[in-house]
Amino acid sequence: MHGGPYTGRMIVTIDGVAASGKSSVASGVARALGIPYVSSGLLYRAATLLGQEAGLDLNMTAPLLACLREHPLRLEPLAAGNRVWLGQRDLTPDLHSSAVDRGVSVVAAQPGVRTWVDDQLRALTPPFVAEGRDMGTNVFPQAPAKFYLTASPRVRAERRSRERPEDVAAIEAALIQRDALDTTQSAPAPDARVIDTGPLTLEQVITVITQQLPAP
Ligand SMILES: Nc1ncnc2c1ncn2[C@@H]1O[C@H](COP(=O)(O)OP(=O)(O)O)[C@@H](O)[C@H]1O
Ligand SMILES: Nc1ccn([C@H]2C[C@H](O)[C@@H](COP(=O)(O)OP(=O)(O)O)O2)c(=O)n1
Predict the structure, then answer these.
(1) Where is the Cytidylate kinase domain positioned along the sequence (predicted)?
(2) Which residue, 52, 78, 96, 105, is most buried by CB atoms nearer than 10 A?
(3) What would the mean pLDDT of 182-191 be, rounded to a whole number?
(4) What does the pLDDT look like over 74-111, one tens digit per residue?
């Protein structure tokens, strides 16, 4: 097992379906290695919130990208938890609402928005743990350590129900719908290790991953 701090320039990618545990696991792996983690989903969520607050039609790429140029967002990849800033305003507390959950897939489906996110991620200096949907396939295909998290919709809905006001059945239905909308960019990389987190605790998932990492 690798014991941090991690001094190499390695990128670890952790992709997976909604509420499979990506950010909690990425944060734990990053802390074990003493490096930051990067939450790509937060940028899609922040773009969605900005569009919603500006009253934009989220299906229209050009006005959204113009809005993002006018109001640049900054991802702060802290190991304990990523934050997104709009100037001095911390958007993070508003990014996990059910309203953003509902709008984000439409925003993330647009190639122009994906390029806006990808450019910001590729500008970051490794080492880091990157989590999302397409970190191992599209953004960092050269990463030497790739993981893909799954769990049944019911397990994921039960976990998320501890963080959302809606009941488990409503959350499960919304997760299944978002899984369907996100399928295009959510395939595991061929060289990713797939982990079903359903029967595991958070700590066990983190240990499985850190045990498989190559030496720096
Ligand atoms: N075995 C597990 N693996 C990962 N997360 C778990 C596990 N058990 C419970 N959780 C919890 O599931 C919730 C959802 O995880 P999160 O990191 O927000 O997922 P994602 O980033 O994929 O949406 C968190 O509260 C996390 O602590
Ligand atoms: N690399 C990524 C990350 C997220 N997305 C999309 C897909 C998701 O519906 C939203 C939000 O992602 P996030 O990882 O924050 O969502 P979950 O926590 O898994 O519910 O963004 C994406 O298309 N590509």
Answers:
(1) 12-213
(2) 105
(3) 93
(4) 999 987 899 999 999 999 999 999 999 999 999 999 99
How many C-beta atoms lie closer than 10 Å to residue 207's C-beta? 16
Single-letter residue type at 87: G
| Residues 135/188, Cβ–Cβ less than 8 Å | no
Give residue for tokens 């990067």: 38
Choosing from 100, 202, 203, 207 the residue with most ligand 1 atoms within 8 A of its CB, the one to mutate for a pocket test is: 202
pLDDT digits (tens, 9 = 90+) for 7-36: 578 999 999 999 999 999 999 999 999 999
Supply the range of the domain harboring residue 99.
11-211
Ligand 1 centroid–CA 162 distance in Å is 10
Nearest ligand to the C-alpha atom of residue 159:
1
pLDDT 10s digits, 164-178: 888 999 999 999 999
Question: Is 165 contained in some domain?
Answer: yes
Kindly state the helix (H) or strand (E) to which residue 33 belongs, with its residue range: helix 22-33
Closest Cα to atom 4 of ligand 2 = 41
Residue 60 contacts residue 54 (beta carbons within 8 Å): no
Cα of 6 vs centre of ligand 2, distance in Å, is 27
Q: What is the ipTM of this complex?
A: 0.97
- Binding residues are 16-24
Answer whether 0.80 is exceeded by the pTM.
yes
Q: Find the CATH number of the domain harbouring 45.
A: 3.40.50.300
Task: State which ligand 1 atom lies nearest to the alpha carbon of 25.
Answer: 4
Residue 4 domain flag: no
